[in-house]
């Protein structure tokens, strides 16, 4: 339990709760949920430019990272087809992966296929079910993909000014504007309460909020004087109580709750908003192909990690289909912007390629 670990090392409740957010981020869990300690470890075990446990902003936004990877691949001769949705895998008569078929009917043939789509999309939607072992299909179907995340992207016409650290007179970003700001994290009990509400199908009345202002570091993201604010919030259930849909009314009601919370810490925030984009778990699934809206392609609980990710006996990136490999967040070691699953899968695929 993350709560036990934090209680052992720290006394300050706000500090414990702030650190506990890394134990529950993206997870339908509270700091008191068994296994949450690993999620905390997963988020602090890496490093950024030699600094252990550090995080960073990508200049130009997260899309710039994808563009950098694409440019590097193209430099080595890769052909990239954007906006070309894959319809299904192309298999030989012996069941070997031979490429993919696009929705427009185009066949792209290859000796190996690597998928960084989720295990659910890769194996349950794109692969012919008769080619997969029934027990494997069942294991993929049973992966816990519950997500508590609603992401809200906000455009504001001025920098938020927090009661705890008011803005400078010249309006320039201060140090706290250039890092993650955690709200409603005065105590771990608040995180647990927010989690409990969501397990009953109700969006949290006092949600956990991680607020970032990337334009404070990267001014090119917004016009002069304006800013973009990223709100990573929990907890919101994928399915609302009573089977109610996440319609515009429900989306806006939850966003209003989040904005009211931010307003308590930074008066004037709501008046500064000139645009907002609300992405609930169903939206994240529909737009980005995240199963259940889960940013990790599946929960990071101990029963879904290591040798069991995505399923027992299939943690080595190879799949039941010869020549088909899983290289996304649903593979070992799981989610996060680190590229470990892709690198490991590439090494396995190259090893097999040499023996073709």
TrEMBL record:
Subcellular location: Mitochondrion matrix
Record protein name field: Pyridine nucleotide-disulfide oxidoreductase domain-containing protein 2
Organism: Podargus strigoides (Tawny frogmouth)
Description of how the protein assembles with itself and partners: Interacts with COX5B; this interaction may contribute to localize PYROXD2 to the inner face of the inner mitochondrial membrane.
Pfam families: Amino_oxidase (PF01593)
Keyword terms, alphabetized: FAD, Flavoprotein
Gene Ontology MF: a single term: oxidoreductase activity
Functional description taken from the UniProt entry: Probable oxidoreductase that may play a role as regulator of mitochondrial function.
Gene3D superfamilies in the record: FAD/NAD(P)-binding domain
Family: Belongs to the carotenoid/retinoid oxidoreductase family.
Domain of life: Eukaryota
InterPro entries: Amino_oxidase (IPR002937), FAD/NAD-bd_sf (IPR036188)
GO cellular component: mitochondrial matrix
Domain Amine oxidase: 32-163
């Amino acid at each position: 339990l993350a709560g036990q670990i934090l209680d052992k090392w720290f006394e300050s409740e706000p500090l414990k709760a702030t650190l506990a957010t890394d134990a529950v981020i993206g997870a339908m869990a509270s700091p008191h949920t068994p296994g949450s300690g690993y999620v905390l470890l997963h988020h602090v075990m890496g490093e950024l430019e030699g600094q252990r446990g550090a995080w960073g902003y990508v200049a130009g936004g997260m899309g710039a990272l994808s563009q950098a990877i694409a440019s590097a691949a193209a430099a080595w001769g890769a052909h990239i087809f954007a906006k070309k949705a894959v319809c299904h895998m192309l298999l030989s008569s012996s069941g070997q992966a031979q490429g993919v078929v696009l929705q427009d009917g185009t066949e792209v043939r290859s000796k190996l296929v690597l998928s960084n789509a989720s295990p659910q999309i890769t194996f349950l939607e794109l692969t012919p079910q008769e080619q997969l072992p029934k027990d494997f299909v069942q294991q993929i179907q049973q992966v816990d993909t519950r997500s508590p995340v609603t992401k809200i992207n906000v455009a504001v016409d001025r920098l938020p000014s927090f009661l705890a650290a008011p803005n400078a007179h010249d309006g320039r970003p201060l140090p706290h504007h250039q890092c993650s700001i955690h709200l409603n994290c005065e105590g771990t009990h608040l995180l647990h309460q927010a989690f409990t509400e969501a397990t009953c199908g109700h969006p949290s009345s006092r949600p956990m909020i991680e607020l970032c202002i990337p334009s404070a570091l990267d001014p090119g993201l917004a016009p002069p004087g304006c800013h973009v604010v990223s709100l990573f919030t929990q907890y919101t259930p994928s399915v609302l109580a009573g089977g109610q849909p996440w319609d515009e009314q429900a989306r806006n009601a939850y966003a209003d709750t989040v904005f009211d919370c931010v307003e308590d810490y930074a008066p004037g925030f709501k008046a500064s908003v000139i645009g907002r984009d609300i992405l609930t778990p169903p939206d994240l699934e529909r737009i980005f192909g995240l199963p259940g809206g889960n940013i990790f392609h599946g929960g990071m609980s101990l029963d879904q990690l290591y040798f069991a990710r995505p399923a027992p006996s299939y943690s080595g990136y190879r799949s039941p289909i010869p020549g088909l490999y899983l290289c996304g967040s649903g593979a070992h070691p799981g989610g996060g912007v680190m590229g470990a699953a892709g690198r490991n899968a590439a090494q396995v695929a190259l090893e097999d390629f040499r023996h073709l």
